[in-house]
Design goal:
heterodimer; A: alpha+beta; FAD/NAD(P)-binding domain; Glutaredoxin; 8-stranded mixed sheet; about 30% helix; about 30% strand; B: about 0% strand; globular
Chain lengths: ~525, ~60
Amino acid sequence: MNKIFETPLYPYTRSADQDAKAPVRHAVAVIGAGPVGLAAAIDLAQRGVEVVVLDDNTKVSFGSRAICFSKRTLEICDRLGLGDGPVEKGVVWNLGKVFFGDRKVFEFNLLPEEGHKRPAFINLQQYHFEHALVERVRQLQADGAPIEIRGGSRVTHVEPKEDSVGLEVQTPEGPYQTDAGWLIACDGANSPTRAMMGLDFTGRVFEDNFLIADVVMDADFPTERWFWFDPPFNRGQSALLHKQPDGVWRIDLQLGWDIDREAEKRPENVIPRLKAMLGEDVKFELEWVSIYTFQCRRMERFRYGRVIFAGDSAHQVSPFGARGANSGLQDTDNLAWKLKLVIDGAAPERLLDSYDEERIHGADENILNSTRSTEFITPKSDQSRIFRDAVLDLAEHHPMARPLVNSGRLSQPCTYDGSGLNSPDALDGPARTRPGSPCPDAPLGEGFLLDKLGGGFTILAIDAEVPESVTEGGVTARRLSVSAKDDRTGALRERYLGDTASAVYLIRPDQHVAMRRPSFDDRQVRAALRRATGSA
Amino acid sequence: MELTLDPNLAAPDDVYEALVAAHDGLTKEESAAFNARLILVLANHVGDAEVIRQAIEAAKPKR
């Protein structure tokens, strides 16, 4: 049986562009059919923007790669119409254990907060995730949405122009030219687009190698994240064991810097390492092996005229913390609605500068967290290791040290504090829903709040009088009227009202709060809507 | 809160003696590990990140 990542899902077929006399113009072209590129395309197509995805491959990613998807990502996927598939397929986990040498020094429970539709994290192979996105593209196509994936199509030349981007696409049948109103480069950490445009990608390289293996086994390890510092089976290094669907386990083994990478990847070297970790008697099969080094770096800007970078092409972090794919989806979540408004002429082009501003803020937060985790996991000086080991020794006996244990700070959505799209906070409400925050979910009757927000601007009225809609400068915000009484658990009150009796929130299409105040005020709401669309 | 750099120990000689005595019989490596643990325990007790930053400054080698 072929594995999902061995089956061509979007094989090359000849497109009409190849026989056109002049280059055909597309509203948006996306380079890269990974999670970020596909999410960008789906989001735009759902908004009615014509989009073509170009990828030199024809299959989903080889090997599990990104395996840990956060609640925020799952919420974005709900808006993208992926349904329950990923969560039903994925492994939900809450418990993490940390070992130092042969001792368990500490365990943590994600203790997911009640009253959210989606779990804190699921583990799911990237190929399953991409497969779900491709299926969604097919569904949109069946519904007549303007979206296309072109496999076997490698972009070999990018030419930024005044009001479009010229592209040369190489195919098995030769090259052709096309034109895109906007180009979104989601072509990964080694982004050929970035290289073609001669743009820098600067940051810090960590001198370390990690062996990463997907192992199929029937083992009775629990559904927990196990992390070892300096384990007996990998002295002086670290190790990670984490469960994925289909009886696949992810194993990461730190190898150090000075190794023969090709030799380390060979099964005759990998298998003894895994046996030392899992025990001689455990039967397993290797599905995928790779060796990676990691880097924490980003581009100086994510937008260069009509070329916009998203995901790993724009910023790269170490894998500890699941901040790669998850932050990439926050990029496209931030971008798609802005691009739609700009293409429609409903917002000025400078709205896209806020993508730069907000997502660079997000990338810097991720790089900071990821760099700190990496320093803890792979100490770069003797003294750094002494402090690290001191934390682990203390953690076994004293709760005070446990918050210092850093085996990866798991991805949290970014709050856009200080963004130019925010209006001043006019509600004495909870800090977690201040302007810039991603809306936390809450139960609402039989369903959940986020599902009711839709894809446009929403005026969330909680026990407040608000007109059905407000249109300002061609942008409409629709009312969602709820009462704190609609949620018997009290989560809605706790997350959106605090001690106040009523609230009016202006919520952006990406479900971030733009404005909040105790009651409706036409002039204020209109001003907030202008500000949130870059028009003020 | 401000870091105090004024005398704050009621029995300075006792504290000093305890600090030195804690290293009795330790190797150089064990002493370094002990000091790191002690710093972490004290930093947690202080709690205030700003005070800890001031302490780091105060303890830096002076030219």
